[in-house]
Amino acid sequence: MSTQTDVKQYQMYINGEFTNSSSNEFIQVINPATEEIISEVPSCTIEEVKEAINFAEEAQKEWKKKPAAERAKYLTRLAEEIRKNKDYLARVISEEQGKVLALSTTEVEFTADYIDYMAGSARTYEGEILQSDRPNENIMIFKEPIGVVAGFLPWNFPFFLVARKAAPALVTGNTIVIKPSSDTPNNAIEFAKLVEKVGIPKGVFNLVTGRGGTVGNELASNEKIGLVSLTGSVNAGVSVMEAAAKNVTKVSLELGGKAPAIVAEDADIDLAVKAIVDSRVINTGQVCNCAERVYVHENIADTFIEKIVEAMKNVKYGNPLEDKDLDMGPLTNKQALESVDSMVKKAVEEGAQVLTGGKRGDAKVGYYYEPTVLVNVKQDSQIVQEEVFGPVLPIMTFKDLDEAIELANDCQYGLTSSIFTQNLDTAMRAANELLFGETYINRENFEAIQGFHAGRKKSGIGGADGKHGLEEFLQTHVVYLQRNPNKK
């Protein structure tokens, strides 16, 4: 059910100007808490995507000539404007995406901090000078921008992901064309308004809205794109790789996850329960790096399960713009709600037991799903092997650490993992043997700006954040300088 209320009209941002599409077609954006249409954004054409890429290519010629410190000043001003507009931006995010207002506010603040961090990299990223095998020669490795970056955004942390792609791209001398999710384009366009306000030169930052089959395919397959950076599903990542392959375009992909949480026999149970619940219900479970399945030692399973069920029962959910005292909001769209509901029903049909939740929320409107705990699940079941992306927690038991690590690694994904233990040997063994890009020990799953967020297996290629994430937006240029020894 979708109704129309006061509908905002948004525009794309190409070459420093906001514009509608010549297609005269629009995509409607729905508030997932009320199912009301809240905005319309242009559905642009292939020709308009090419135009944005061409402008970005032309702008990059001058942008890369600016000293990195000068490029960073634009980013610093952008971070300041984001902080000034924090409350407004948070409401825009919550309205279109459904996350609680406190989390939206945190997302905005984190975005500003991230931009500042990347701006600070302007004077620290560096090349190398190597020793040559020849006399009178220097070997120098320069780090240079790649060119035009195509940035594909998901809908779960849509505002932060603009910065995660644009900030490192811009500070290193690239230009960018951003494609936001059609579910959550509003906040990205608000970001573009601030880009315009701080005076980032025309063509350096561009934003096009539209369907993946049109906009996304052109961005990924265009020969002028030097790097495709995508955060999204495995299927989206495969599609981008296929489209980029014909030009051998570099891709950086953060894809799905099915993060295991191991609760050892000696774990602080209360700490584990809080961290796992926080990790599972944040953003209504729509976070690729948060706990998706739990393996608890059989000797403490009864106590752990009793406490985690009670904690999940106490999770409060509702409309994030009507109630500030919430733990989670609705799922972002109707398809997500139907997918989560279908997966839980299938698990029950296969013998899983629902200890709490297990069904859609009672609200007459909105894409709500109850916080859910399942036991009696099987390792090879869909609910354990595939990403749920909702507030659903399947729990299994194990006898020893060998079994726990084997079960945790038995998955197509390899993004994040966690373990709860008071034993250093146990923690370090898990850190060495878990086949994941990240392992969190005795804490919730949430990465740091200065870390490196990267997955293995089907969770992606490349990574983001920190100095290693910055490297994704650079290419090497090796120079061999032979000096004339006879010249005085």
What does this structure look like?
With 488 residues, this protein is an alpha/beta fold. The protein has 2 domains: 8-255 and 459-477, Aldehyde Dehydrogenase, Chain A, domain 1; 260-441, Aldehyde Dehydrogenase, Chain A, domain 2, CATH 3.40.309. It contains 15 helices and 25 strands. It has helices at residues 46-63, 68-84, 86-97, 101-120, 158-171, 186-197, 212-221, 234-245, 269-281, 301-313, 334-349, 382-385, 401-409, 424-433, 466-471, and strands at residues 3-9, 12-14, 17-19, 26-31, 36-42, 128-130, 137-145, 148-152, 175-179, 205-207, 225-231, 250-254, 259-263, 291-297, 353-356, 372-375, 392-398, 413-414, 416-420, 438-441, 453-454, 456-457, 460-461, 463-464, 474-482. The strands form 7 sheets. The chain has a 7-stranded mixed sheet, with helices on both faces. Strand 2 and strand 3 form a beta hairpin.
Helix content: 25-40%
Number of domains: 2
| Strand segment tally | 25
Radius of gyration: 24 Å
Protein name: Aldehyde dehydrogenase
GO molecular function: aldehyde dehydrogenase [NAD(P)+] activity; identical protein binding; succinate-semialdehyde dehydrogenase (NAD+) activity
Pathway: Carbohydrate degradation
InterPro entries: Ald_DH/histidinol_DH, Ald_DH_C, Ald_DH_CS_CYS, Ald_DH_CS_GLU, Ald_DH_N, Aldehyde_DH_dom, Aldehyde_DH_Superfamily
Features:
single chain, 2 domains, seven-stranded mixed sheet, 15 helices, six-stranded mixed sheet, 25 strands, 488 residues, alpha/beta, Aldehyde Dehydrogenase, Chain A, domain 1, Aldehyde Dehydrogenase, Chain A, domain 2
